[in-house]
Request: fold
Amino acid sequence: MVAEKKFDVVVVGAGFGGMYMLHKLLGLGFNATIVEAASGVGGTWWWNRYPGARCDVESLEYSYSFSDELQQEWEWSQKFSEGAEILQYANHVADRFGLRNHINFNTKINSVTYDESDHIWTLKTLNGETYKANYCVMATGTLSDPNEPKFNGLHDYQGDWYMTGKWPHEGVDFKGKTVGIIGTGSSAVQAIPVIAKDAKHLTVFQRTANYSIPANQQVLPPEEVAEVKANYSQIRQDARLDQAGIGRRNRAESRIFEVSPEEREAEFQKRWDKGGTGFTAAYKDILETDEANSVAAEFVKRQIKKIVKDPEVAELLCPTNTIGCKRLCADTEYFETYNRDNVNLIDINQNPIEGLYQKGIRTENQDFEFDIVIFAIGFDAMTGALKAMNIVGKDGVELNKKWEDGPITYLGLTVSGFPNLFTITGPGSPSVLSNMITSIEQHVEWISECINYMHEQQKVEIDADIQSEEDWGEHVEDVASATLRYGCNSWYVGANVPGKRRIFMPYAGGIPKYNEKCDEVATNGYKGFTLV
Ligand code: N01
Reply:
């Protein structure tokens, strides 16, 4: 019989959200713990160890700001950090702030139930343990529930297969191997150039061509690091005032047709050469109007055609949707890779995949033999990890049932009927449309202040009002529908998961407006919530 463990707060997940949440709660004197399914910290970076994995937000900004000592002492080596370096940083944070002893690794939650008589959440784990807590914080990540491949014949396939989102920690040796990869999203765009260099042959199966901007990866110049470190506090403040939570983003004030064609060509070229996803911030209206968007999109397509030597392959690689509608990728020699003799591209719209067979992938027109197949097919984004935990709130209402028609939240932080439970970067918050760490820090600070307020005021339950939740849901929908992101079949709207209700999940109104609303709610005694 395993004893029950009782805490003030149980945090689920030891990624960047969970670790800062734990640090904050311990600092306030709460009895808090983390439960984590993995055997180490780092969340997304613990799982996504595919070749080429790196962050598309610059290292100097994709890092915690809460401790000046930490940001001054940590040395990032490259402009965009590799996954392994981010994982080292996560481990450093866990050790530096003494978090490790408060984390229960290899502990996967499979039910979370609220008892309204004593206002206690009960979390049960797969290995039969029970945790009880007054508050529960879900720091379970937004892209943490990878889509399992559901292709016909997968079990007949006798080669090795891997998912980018659950990459083996010992690595995969591609030398001398024939490899097939399904998917051309951010994960594949990063993995393909690296795998192509090692493999005997690589075949890429593309359903939708993707826009990608070169990362222009480089070793961080010491003078840039010194300048950022000298101005960190201003940069971090600016990040909280930037739409996407990036302090040094050069966001243009003008609209695209206010400048001459020569001027915008030069601006796009400058941003292409600089590298990274700041490309779509060149003009205010790129994500607002089709006309503006197509000018930016055409620039990128011209670059693809300049890079890729085979005109047919180049044409296939040119996206047909609006730029920025799906998450923009940042790459290192992605398009150049298609000039290699050992790489070919299959358009599965013309030649659909029927499934796998003993030796590889079978399409309508051809059988492909592979030693290794890689599924880079994305995630059940934003809701997958939460739904997998079987969360049951007041009156026995299941979160999965409540969210059947799409996730609805108050501020992306709470769900009505699920009191004392918070989500970090949940649906309805800027989350994946922002620098995740900027958003995580704001959420953690809001949640810890809220829990502290509850404690000081001797309150035992906080629950979002249904009306506030509905109003927020409408607002999230309104701001999303005003952007071009609303229109295409992206994981932002759940279109990549068959049967998932189409709803724009992140908050597209930008960080400043969002933070202002959160602050207003808190300073008005948690307006829109009922406190018991
Ligand atoms: O997943 P994706 P991802 N048959 O969903 C295709 C973050 N991230 O893991 O577009 C054939 O973007 C699918 O095709 P389509 C980042 O936010 C960040 O690559 O649906 N193909 C698509 O091409 C990113 O956006 C970094 O038509 C199928 C691909 O698989 C998010 O994670 C690095 C298919 C999936 O692309 C997800 O990226 C990596 C099927 N049945 C990831 N199902 C950073 O740099 C899906 N596809 C921080």
Summary: The mean pLDDT is 97. The first helix runs from residue 16 to 27. Residues 54-56, 143, 164, 182-188, 190, 207-208, 327, 348, 376-379, 432, 491, 496 surround 3-acetylpyridine adenine dinucleotide (CB under 6 Å).
